[in-house]
C-alpha cells in the first residue's frame, strides 16, 4: 500500500515550487505511484490502462523486469559521464542501434533528450553543408531549445525562437490539407521554398513520419521521396525525427520513415529508446559524422553507462517479445475497431495512424471539420474515470493520441474501444 503524500498535498507543492507551465491532462490530476507493463496505479491502488505511454515513451512496458535489471546492474557496477573513459555499455548499445538502421547510417551520437538530438542534427546539417537554411513542416514538433523551437511550427510551442533561416513548408495533411492524400502535390512547396526563398542551396529538411504532438498525422504517401529528392539536389541533408515513430511503434517497420521508402542522412531518436530513462541519439553516416571531428562536441551525460545499458535491454526486449509484430497486429485491430465506431458516433471525424501510433480526431461537424475541443477534454476525463488513459494533441487539442506500450493486447484494445464507445454514447 502507498503511504506517501496525497494528490492534493503533491498538487500544493507543485503549485508552489514547480514551474507554472506544468500542465495536467485531467480536471482532477492523477497521482500515479506504480506501473507494470501497460498498467498504471494511483495512490488508492486503482488500475488504469495506459494507452498514451507517457507520450510514446514507454515502448516495452512500465518497469519491464529485464530493463529494470539491466539498469540496476549497471548502476551497481558504475555510473559515470559518457566522455573521457571507455565503457563497454556505451559501445555495445551504439553497435546494436546502428544495426537497426539501413544504408550507411552507423555512427551514433548520444544525447539526453529528443530536443538535444534534433539540435545536434540541425547543427551537423549546417556545418556539413556550409548553408544555414532549414526546411521543416507546419504543425511539426521538434523540441523546445532555441533552434528546435524554430523548426517547430505550432504557436503553442513557440516563444523563444531562433528562426532565422527556417522555412515552414505546407503540411502534407491527409485530413485537412488541400491536396488530400496526394503527397507529390504538397512536395512542390518545398521546391518553391528552395527556388524562391533561398539561394538555391539549403542545409537540410527535417520532419516526423507521423506528426505526434501535431495530432498523429501521417505524411501523405509520395511526399517524402519527392521532397528528399528536391532537398538533396539543393545540397541539403534529410533528417528523420523518429522521436515518437521509432522503435517498432508503427508495427509495419522499425522506423517511421521506412514506410515512405526513403533513407535519411540523419535519424534522430529519444523517448522509446530508453523505455522511460532519459536518453536520445542521432545516427548518421561516417562521412557526415566527420564534420564534428574538427570540433569538440561534448555531452557529459548523453548516453551514459546506465542509460545505454537500459537502451540495449530495450532492443533485446523488442526482439525477444516480438513487439514490432505485436504493434502491427494489435494496432491494425485497434484501428479497425476505432474506425467502426465512426458509424455510431458522428463526433469522430477521422481515425488514422499506423501500428500503435493512432489518432482519433473529434469534430462537431464532419463536413466543416470543426474541432470538438471541449468534447475531447470531457471524453478524455470520463475515460480516465473508467480506467483508460489516452493522450490528446493536434493544433486544436481535439485529437486523441493512442500510443500505448507495445505490449498492448487485443483485450486491452477491446476495453479501450468499449470505454470510448460508452463515454461517447453518454455525451
Ligand atoms: N521530436 C518529437 C517528434 C517529439 O515528439 C518530441 C517531444 N514531444 C521531441 C522531438 C522533443 O523531445 P524531448 O521532449 O525529449 O526533448
UniProtKB/TrEMBL annotation:
Its cofactor is pyridoxal 5'-phosphate. One of its GO terms (biological process) is photorespiration. This is alanine--glyoxylate transaminase. The keyword Iron-sulfur does not apply. Pfam families: Aminotran_3. It catalyses: glyoxylate + L-alanine = glycine + pyruvate. Belongs to the class-III pyridoxal-phosphate-dependent aminotransferase family. It comes from Liquidambar formosana (Formosan gum). Its EC number is 2.6.1.44. PANTHER family: ALANINE-GLYOXYLATE AMINOTRANSFERASE-LIKE PROTEIN, PTHR45688. Keywords: Photorespiration, Pyridoxal phosphate. InterPro entries: Aminotrans_3 (IPR005814), Aminotrans_3_PPA_site (IPR049704), PyrdxlP-dep_Trfase (IPR015424), PyrdxlP-dep_Trfase_major (IPR015421), PyrdxlP-dep_Trfase_small (IPR015422). GO terms for cellular component: mitochondrion. PROSITE patterns: AA_TRANSFER_CLASS_3 (PS00600). One of its GO terms (molecular function) is pyridoxal phosphate binding. It comes from the Eukaryota.
Amino acid at each position: 500500500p502507498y503511504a506517501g503524500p496525497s494528490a492534493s498535498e503533491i498538487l500544493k507543492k507543485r503549485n508552489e515550487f514547480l514551474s507554472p507551465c506544468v500542465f495536467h491532462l485531467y480536471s482532477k490530476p492523477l497521482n500515479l505511484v506504480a506501473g507494470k507493463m501497460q498498467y498504471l496505479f494511483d495512490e488508492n491502488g486503482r488500475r488504469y490502462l495506459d494507452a498514451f505511454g507517457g507520450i510514446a515513451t514507454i515502448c516495452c512496458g512500465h518497469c519491464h523486469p529485464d530493463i529494470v535489471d539491466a539498469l540496476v546492474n549497471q548502476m551497481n557496477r558504475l555510473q559515470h559521464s559518457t566522455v573521457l573513459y571507455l565503457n563497454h555499455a556505451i559501445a555495445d548499445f551504439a553497435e546494436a542501434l546502428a544495426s537497426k538502421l539501413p544504408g550507411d547510417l552507423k555512427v551514433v551520437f548520444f544525447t539526453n533528450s529528443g530536443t538535444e538530438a534534433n539540435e545536434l542534427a540541425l547543427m551537423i546539417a549546417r556545418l556539413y553543408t556550409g548553408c544555414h537554411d532549414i526546411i521543416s513542416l507546419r504543425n511539426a514538433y521538434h523540441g523546445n531549445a532555441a533552434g528546435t523551437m524554430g523548426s517547430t511550427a505550432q504557436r503553442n510551442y513557440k516563444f523563444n525562437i531562433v528562426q532565422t533561416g527556417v522555412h515552414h513548408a505546407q503540411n502534407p495533411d491527409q485530413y485537412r490539407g488541400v491536396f488530400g492524400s496526394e503527397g507529390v502535390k504538397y512536395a512542390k512547396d518545398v521546391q518553391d521554398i528552395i527556388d524562391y526563398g533561398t539561394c538555391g542551396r539549403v542545409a537540410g529538411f527535417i520532419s516526423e513520419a507521423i506528426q505526434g504532438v501535431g495530432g498523429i498525422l501521417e505524411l501523405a504517401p509520395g511526399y517524402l521521396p519527392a521532397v528528399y529528392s528536391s532537398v538533396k539536389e539543393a545540397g541539403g541533408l534529410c533528417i528523420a525525427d523518429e522521436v515518437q515513430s521509432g522503435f517498432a511503434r508503427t508495427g509495419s517497420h522499425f522506423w517511421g520513415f521506412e514506410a515512405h521508402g526513403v533513407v535519411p542522412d540523419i535519424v534522430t531518436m529519444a523517448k522509446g529508446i530508453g523505455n522511460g530513462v532519459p536518453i536520445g541519439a542521432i545516427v548518421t553516416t561516417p562521412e557526415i559524422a566527420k564534420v564534428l571531428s574538427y570540433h569538440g562536441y561534448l555531452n557529459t551525460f548523453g548516453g551514459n553507462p546506465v542509460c545505454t545499458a537500459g537502451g540495449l535491454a530495450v532492443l533485446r526486449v523488442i526482439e525477444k517479445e516480438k513487439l514490432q509484430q505485436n504493434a502491427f497486429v494489435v494496432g491494425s485491430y485497434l484501428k479497425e475497431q476505432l474506425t467502426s465506431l465512426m458509424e455510431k458516433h458522428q463526433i469522430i471525424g477521422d481515425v488514422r495512424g499506423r501500428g500503435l501510433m493512432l489518432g482519433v480526431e473529434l469534430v462537431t461537424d464532419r463536413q466543416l471539420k470543426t474541432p470538438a475541443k471541449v468534447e475531447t477534454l470531457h471524453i478524455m476525463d470520463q475515460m480516465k474515470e473508467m480506467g483508460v488513459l489516452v493522450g490528446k494533441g493536434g493544433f486544436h487539442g481535439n485529437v486523441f493520441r493512442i500510443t500505448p506500450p507495445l505490449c498492448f493486447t487485443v483485450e486491452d484494445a477491446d476495453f479501450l474501444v468499449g470505454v470510448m464507445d460508452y463515454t461517447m454514447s453518454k455525451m
